[in-house]
Amino acid sequence: MVPKWVCAGFVYLLLGLILNVAEFCNGGMTSGYQRPNNLSFDMPLDSDVFRVPPGYNAPQQVHITQGDYEGRGVIISWITPDEPGSNTVVYWAENTELKNCADGIVVTYKYFDYTSGFIHHCTIKDLEFDTKYYYEVGIGNTTRQFWFITPPKVGPDVPYTFGLIGDLGQTYDSNTTLTHYELNPAKGQALLFVGDLSYADDYPFHDNNRWDTWGRFIERNAAHQPWIWTAGNHEIDFAPAIGESIPFKPYTHRFFVPYEASESTSPLWYSIKRASAYIIVMSSYSAFGKYTPQYKWFTNKVTEVNRTETPWLIVLMHPPMYNSYVSHYMEGETMRVMYEPWFVEYKVDVVFAGHVHAYERSERVSNVAYNIINGLCTPVNNHSAPVYITIGDGGNQEGLSTAMTQPQPHYSAYREASFGHGIFDIKNRTHAYFSWHRNQDGYAIEADSQRFPTSTETIGRVLCSFIKIRVSFRFLSNSRHDIFDIKNKTCGIAIEMDFLSMLILTSFTGKNLEIIPRILYNMIRNSFLLAFLLIVRLLGLFVLQLNCSCYKMNGLNYRGGFIVRPPKDIALSAVLGPAS
Ligand SMILES: *[C@@H]1O[C@H](CO)[C@@H](O)[C@H](O)[C@H]1NC(C)=O
Ligand SMILES: *[C@@H]1O[C@H](CO)[C@@H](O)[C@H](O)[C@H]1NC(C)=O
Ligand SMILES: *[C@@H]1O[C@H](CO)[C@@H](O)[C@H](O)[C@H]1NC(C)=O
Ligand SMILES: *[C@@H]1O[C@H](CO)[C@@H](O)[C@H](O)[C@H]1NC(C)=O
Ligand SMILES: *[C@@H]1O[C@H](CO)[C@@H](O)[C@H](O)[C@H]1NC(C)=O
Ligand SMILES: *[C@@H]1O[C@H](CO)[C@@H](O)[C@H](O)[C@H]1NC(C)=O
Ligand SMILES: *[C@@H]1O[C@H](CO)[C@@H](O)[C@H](O)[C@H]1NC(C)=O
Ligand SMILES: [Fe+2]
Question: What is the CATH number of domain 156-195+268-475?
Answer without folding.
Answer: 3.60.21.10
